[in-house]
Amino acid sequence: MRSDAGSGNFAGGDERRGRQSSSVAAVPGDLTTVDAFLGGEVEIEQPARGYRAGLDAVLLAAAAQPVRSISGPLRVIDVGAGVGTAGLCLAARLDEADVTLVERDPLASQLSNRNVERNRLGARARVVTVDVMKPAPEAVKQSLADASFDLANSNPPYRAEGRHRPSADELKAAAHAMPEDGLDRWLRFMARMTRPGGTAVIIHRADCLEPLLAALNGRFGGVVVLPLHPRAGEPASRVIVRAVKASRAPLRIAHGLVLHDDDGAFRPDIKAVLSAPRALDWPGPGQAPG
After folding, report:
1. Which of 36, 71, 83, 138 has the most beta carbons within 10 angstroms of its beta carbon?
2. Is there a contact between 43 and 58 (Cβ–Cβ < 8 Å)?
3. What global pTM score does this model have?
4. DSSP bridge pairs for 53
5. What is the pLDDT of residues 204-252, one digit of tens each?
């Protein structure tokens, strides 16, 4: 699964190497692999080197517990979708979901389009190549209407530009870093896309929780923070944060999830959401944290 977010250090890195594909137009000078997710329910073509999808994307997809206020399709936007892993895993779990994959990199977008076709989700998923850091008119040109989505999912770049040594791989570097004020601009876009009462779900590094909460402030409320611990007794390395647009409910901290047993194997509840299209067991909207 995805290793671009450091899942090898964080969660043991269940990065299964798939069969190689000779279709390499989207990744010049390199090969791609086709990797199985959710027990084979979803197949993802991605670069064989550098930027690869993994645990964070699957947990993000499993964490979504959207609330719809009207009948019809559940409108989902996956912001910074990469090759489409999180959005397509979500579509595999929620048959009513209509998913828009937003990605700025044209090569990743091309792979996302191929993955939509590969998983026969063309009727319920589309790819939009937009840089969410740029002014709103670019998004408008791509028919992304304000306040039109029930759920906004995202696995934002984890590091600020200039504060880490950049990867030599262009796709991986783009996936990792954003400008100093980038997280605020990223959340501004998510808030603009989400309808009042709609939900945002974000996975991020635990040590970035403070700026993430600051970026949510004034845009989303009813924030629930789910810490993710590599092993029992170890500090959380990731958090999943869920929030509701225009809510005034107070911040809550959910009982943390432990990902691995002492021997490094995934715990049964985590293994369950990695091996099939299932929801992550954590407090739903309006529920008290465990």
Report:
1. 83
2. no
3. 0.84
4. 2
5. 999 999 999 999 999 999 999 999 999 999 999 999 999 999 999 999 9
b/e per residue, 224-263, with b = 16+ CB within 10 A? bbbbbbbeeeeebbbbbbbbbbeeeeeeeebebbbbbeee
Sign of the dihedral defined by the CA atoms of residues 244, 248, 251, 252, in that order: negative
Rounded CA separation 248/223 (Å): 9
Q: What is the 3-state secondary structure (H, E, C) of the chain?
A: CEECCCHHHHHCCCCCCCEEECCCCCCCCCCEEEEEEHHHCEEEEEECCCCCECHHHHHHHHHCCCCCCCCCCEEEEEECCCCCHHHHHHHHHCCCEEEEEEECCHHHHHHHHHHHHHCCCCCCEEEEECCCCCCHHHHHHCCCCCCCEEEEEECCCCEECCCCCCCCCHHHHHHHEECCCHHHHHHHHHHHHEEEEEEEEEEEEHHHHHHHHHHHCCCEEEEEEEEEEEECCCCCCEEEEEEEECCCCCCEECCCEEEECCCCCECHHHHHHHHCCCCCCCCCCCCCCC
Report the alpha-carbon angle 27-177-152, nearest 5. Answer: 85
How many CB atoms sit inside 10 A of residue 90's CB?
28
pLDDT in tens, 31-69: 889 999 999 999 999 998 877 888 999 999 999 876 665
**48 CB burial (10 A radius; 0-12, 13-18, 19+):** middle
Q: CA 203, CA 225: separation in Å to the nearest integer?
A: 10
